[in-house]
Amino acid sequence: METVNTSNTVPAKIPRIAVYISEEVKTDLEKLAFSERRSTSAMAAILIEEALKARGYLVEELKQDSSP
């Protein structure tokens, strides 16, 4: 049986997470994203990837495998 998307949203092609952050962190994230001409979400994803790589959890091959 085929599932039909009846909502007005497009299904995400990549996994999503929700996080709770302080107002100060949110403000700084928005400033950084603006300065790099990125969305806040895209900036957060980049920062998470950088932190994981710095701690040895994310290898470059994984990122290349998930590219379309």
Structure description:
It is a single chain. With 68 residues, the chain is an all-alpha fold. 50% of the residues lie in helices and 0% in strands. The protein has three helices and no strands. Helix 1 (23-35) crosses helix 2 (40-54). The chain is globular. The model has no long low-confidence stretch (mean pLDDT 84).
Topology:
Elements: H1 23-35, H2 40-54, H3 60-65
Tell me, briefly, the overall form. globular
Order of H and E elements: HHH
Q: Helices and strands: which structural class?
A: mainly alpha
Radius of gyration: 16 Å
Distance between the termini: 27 Å
Q: Report the average pLDDT across residues.
A: 84
- Percent strand equals under 5%
- Total strands: the figure is 0
Output the number of helix runs: 3
Uncertain stretches? none
The biggest beta sheet reads: none
Range of helix content: 40-55%
Brief write-up:
By secondary structure, the chain is mostly helical.
Name the features.
mainly alpha, single chain, 3 helices, 68 residues
